[in-house]
Amino acid sequence: MNDSEFRVLIVDDEPNIRSGLAKGLVKEVDSIEVAADPHEALAKFEETSPHLVIADVRLNSDIDGIELVRRMRKLRPSVAVIVITAHGTVETAVDAMRAGAFDFIAKPLDLNLVRQQVKKARQHLELRAENVQLRSRLADAGELSGIIGNCAAMQDVLHQIRQVAATEATVMIHGESGTGKELVARALHDLSDRSDGPFVAVNLGAMPETLLESELFGHEKGSFSGASRQKPGCFEQAAGGTLFLDEVTEMSPKSQVDLLRVLESRRFNRVGGEQVLEADARVVSATNKSVTDLIEENTFREDLYYRLNVIPIEVPSLRQRRDDIPLLIEHFLQHFCTRHRRPLKHVASDAMRTLVANQWPGNVRQLRNWVERMVVTHTGDVIEANQLPAEVQLASKPSSANARSLAYNSLAEAVEATERDVIAAALEACDFHRENTAKRLGVSVRTLHYKMGRHGLH
């Protein structure tokens, strides 16, 4: 909660229920407002910003309690809602929870039970507020959701995260592969009012088009061959939380249309289903490509881009934040030495200079993988410059033609060595996923396998 006063709004078309709840909850809350219908409730909701709403499902109005919950949660996702009804069916409870209700109580009301649920909701909101404040303080100190960086470029990213997280704005994260775009998405979630909801990440680049619709929106039993049961999609799984769409520019034209429709209407259907479901998830997307180039090539929809790119965040490459490399290396050394039960290792100063000068085409992911390899394979306590892998030493040297040509006896040898270094770096950057590596290098998987064998890369 943003302040110490705990405010409650009671919505019921029966005067006795409204007055009875208002009198019965005086000791549990600081401020109580009542409303006889949903329209009055929405007006008071925007005027007083209650922390908790207690609403009847059956209201004598064109808006029922479930729809009221949806609208209030859309206006402010942090609000807690307790739904009450005389029609305490399982279906009603499920609908209420899907709409974002905190809890469900059936009539006739037990005032003691209502008081308990109100106390529970208050404790929940206070705990969530404390967690958000803690994460905010960690973000101010440069530590948030695994993001490590003291350089000006990363401090700017952290500032943008703090500025945007508490809103419902759609965010698009731009940056090269391996820069930590998913960490930025998680930080946005952790500092948001949705932080106690789920964080669901889906890599659209690794998803065949035939499965993507089912993965995003779910499917009904029997909707296609192999659909042996009902399956909720990512939008359902992320309800009340954040849905992270990585490599969003890899979607097919049809999938782009489907996603645009959901972003505009905030509603969707499972594959093979007729029930209309609410898309109650904040969408954060990411790409490592120039979207404007893709729009010019007519491979990505401009209207979808504007929907996704309301707030753009640019994550710098490791080459643009070299001052952070020693900090990252020390962090990864401590992490992997603990994880693999190895004595803590250190990097000698001359080796650290070499590592800082390296190009790191795979960015933080490549650096992380290299540190883990050194922790596992290096036997000493100190990593010296002459013990660094050849590709790291080579890539950190001046890139002039004369400096590099001295290392080879012929042009063919230089081309072979360069090709090996490029393939090795791409493999590491892609976590040794061969299909992604082949895609990154612009070759077929078969060609990649052949070249890996020729260069002894296994």
From TrEMBL:
Residues 7-122 form the Response regulatory domain. Keywords: ATP-binding, DNA-binding, Nucleotide-binding, Phosphoprotein, Transcription, Transcription regulation. CDD domains: AAA. The modification 4-aspartylphosphate is found at D56. Gene3D superfamilies: 1.10.8.60, 3.40.50.2300, Homeodomain-like, P-loop containing nucleotide triphosphate hydrolases. The keyword Transcription regulation applies. PANTHER family: SIGMA FACTOR, TRANSCRIPTIONAL REGULATORY PROTEIN. This is Two-component system, NtrC family, response regulator.
